[in-house]
């Protein structure tokens, strides 16, 4: 298999002749979650420890009632694989408001989860487009 001309994904040759692997990396998703936890969630760490659960479990519990779209919060951290152009925007949260009922740690965490899902879906679609069975 040859890589797509737009170099949107990377295609790696396999050790077995005739096989290849299409690679779609979701840059920074896990690292961003850890950064968010460590930078903003000291109280949640203590709360989770008192409950005997992982802090991510607690964050997910708090984020589960945030509606899809996270009140318009757009995280700029992870991007879809663009093997030919490895550029990324400066890390940011966009559309934050001063309304603490909708703009809080739970909605920001949910926005990060949604971003990871969207980027993964884009990479999966790119991979599927070159593997037509």
Describe this structure in words.
The structure is a single chain. With 133 residues, the protein is mainly alpha-helical. It has a single domain (26-78, 86-130), classed as ATPase, nucleotide binding domain (Nucleotidyltransferase, domain 5, 2-Layer Sandwich). Helix content is 43%, strand content 11%. The chain is built from 4 helices and 4 strands; from the N terminus they run ββαααββα. It has helices spanning 29-40, 42-51, 55-63, 105-130, and strands at residues 10-13, 20-23, 74-76, 92-94. Strand 1 and strand 2 (20-23) form a beta hairpin. Helix 2 (42-51) crosses helix 3 and helix 3 (55-63) crosses helix 4 (105-130). It is elongated and about 55 Å long. The mean pLDDT is 84.
Summarize the structure.
This protein is mainly α.
Main features:
single chain; 43% helix; 4 helices; 4 strands; mainly alpha; two-stranded antiparallel ribbon; 133 residues; Nucleotidyltransferase, domain 5; 11% strand; two-stranded antiparallel sheet
Please tally the helical runs, counting DSSP H or I stretches of 4 or more residues: 4
The percentage helix is: 40-55%
Order of helix and strand elements from N to C terminus: EEHHHEEH
Helix/strand-derived category reads: mainly alpha
CATH superfamily, called what? Answer: ATPase, nucleotide binding domain
Strand order of the largest sheet: 1-2
Q: How many β-strands, per DSSP? A: 4
CATH architecture call: 2-Layer Sandwich
Distance from first to last alpha carbon: 13 Å
CATH structural fold name: Nucleotidyltransferase, domain 5
Q: What's the number of structural domains?
A: 1
Mean pLDDT: 84
Q: Approximately what portion of the residues adopt beta-strand conformation?
A: 5-15%
Rg is: 18 Å
The biggest sheet, with number of strands, parallel, antiparallel or mixed sense and barrel status, is: 2 strands, antiparallel
Envelope shape: elongated
Point out poorly predicted stretches. Answer: none
The CATH class is identified as: Alpha Beta
